[in-house]
Specification:
The protein has 208 residues and is an all-beta fold. It is built from one helix and eleven strands, in the order E-E-E-E-E-E-E-H-E-E-E-E.
């Protein structure tokens, strides 16, 4: 019997990851526009951004790409929690592999960001095994009717079963390195990595 092949579409763009975690190492204090965590204000006089000074140190960090308009750099160290807000230039996307440059005037900060992305993809050997699945059966169900006669109909019901599958695991590792630069001087650097794995199915039997 001819084998039916199922391919799942895969998107490797860095932005599809939505966020990447890593270390943010500050070598020289710098000022940045950050999220203003406003408390409750009945008059609504809270500005969305505030200016903060980021001191030298090693911060746990997360860069969030989920917004089309903003890039968020979350910093945590001891009791310090700040989120630097970058304006995302129109149509800007991070490369799959290669370098990028974000200018201060475009991201509404006093520093440029220069960095690079490296993405590697590896596939495991093919695997063939049974996995659990669900399928629908129609049960013929009768219940008392209002006129004393039973009312009967088919009712769908989900049933657990198994199916034979053939697949391989595709592992995508994305590394991001970036430097914050002001007047040709390095202020800080970010180093992060995200690893994702997914099943790519080559064959799926019926669930029974």
């Amino acid at each position: 019997m001819k084998k039916i092949v199922f391919f799942l579409s895969v998107c490797f763009a860095l932005v599809s990851c939505k966020e990447i975690s890593g270390s943010f190492i500050v070598t020289k204090d710098f000022k940045a526009q950050a999220k203003n965590n406003c408390g409750w204000d009945p008059f609504g006089h809270c500005e969305p951004l505030k200016e903060v000074t980021i001191q030298p140190g090693n911060y746990n960090s997360k860069i969030n790409f989920s917004s089309k308009d903003l890039i968020r750099i979350e910093l945590k160290a001891n009791k310090i929690t700040e989120t630097i807000i970058l304006k995302r230039p129109l149509n800007f996307e991070f490369p799959l592999n290669g370098s990028f440059l974000l200018l201060a005037k475009d991201i509404h900060q006093d520093f440029d960001i220069k960095g690079s992305v490296n993405t590697t993809v590896s596939n495991s050997p093919n695997r063939r095994e049974y996995e659990s699945c669900t399928y629908t059966v129609n049960d013929y169900v009768c219940y008392p009717g209002g006129n004393g006669h039973p009312q009967c109909s088919y009712q769908p019901r989900q049933v657990w079963g198994y199916r034979l599958v053939e697949y391989y695991l595709r592992t995508t590792a994305q590394n991001l390195a970036a430097f914050l630069i002001q007047a040709n001087e390095d202020l800080a650097r970010f180093e992060g990595q995200k690893i994702d794995s997914e099943k790519i199915y080559l064959f799926q039997s019926f669930c029974r």
